[in-house]
Every structure is written in C-alpha cells, then in structure tokens.
Amino acid sequence: QVQLVESGGGLVQAGGSLRLSCAASGRTFSIVTMGWFRQAPGKEREFVAGIVWSTVSPYYADSVKGRFTISRDNAKNTVYLQMNSLKPEDTAVYYCAVKDRFGGTYNYWGQGTQVTVSS
Question: Which of 33, 62, 96, 97 has the largest count of CB atoms under 10 Å?
C-alpha cells in the first residue's frame, strides 16, 4: 500500500502561482511513476503531469506545458507541482496518484486539494 497526502491548494488570481505537494508513505519502494490529475466540476478527470521515479523524467499535458513544473524530493518521497501563470480554466480539484510496479495503471490516489483561480 502507498498512502498519499496532498497540500498546497487555495485561491489565487489569474496569472498567479501555487505549489502543490504530495507526500508518499508506505510501500514507496514500489513507486514507478507519480502523477497529478485534476477534475473540474462537470468534467472528467484529466492528466496534468507525471514524473518517472527512477529517471526523474517529467511529462505534461499540452494544456499546462510551459506553465507547470513537476519535481521530486527523493529524500522526502514528495512530489511537487509548481503552477505558474494560472488561468481560470485551471480551477479544479487536483489529485496526486501513484503507479507502482504491481499495477498496470495509477492505483493509489490522494484525497485531492482544491485549486481555484479567479479572473
């Protein structure tokens, strides 16, 4: 089992910045990829960014490229999502997720943190 705790959401004006954190605990040795997803009201959950644990290789959805940066602190088993130049359409609940070596998809999820961007 892997447990995930997110933090860092909040209310920000358009053009502002926020940094989300996701701390992993438990069977962290099994982590293959950590990712961020988001779900806006009335919409399906969508992928935002991910990072391969062993190579620290990041990848992003087209909608956030150049604005968001995913990074990792290996010593703390924590992943960050730095969000700059925020837009109202970035408003959503953001979820951290883990894909481990025992599952074929993201199989552990955090509780979510609300990000609201006002215009």
Answer: 96
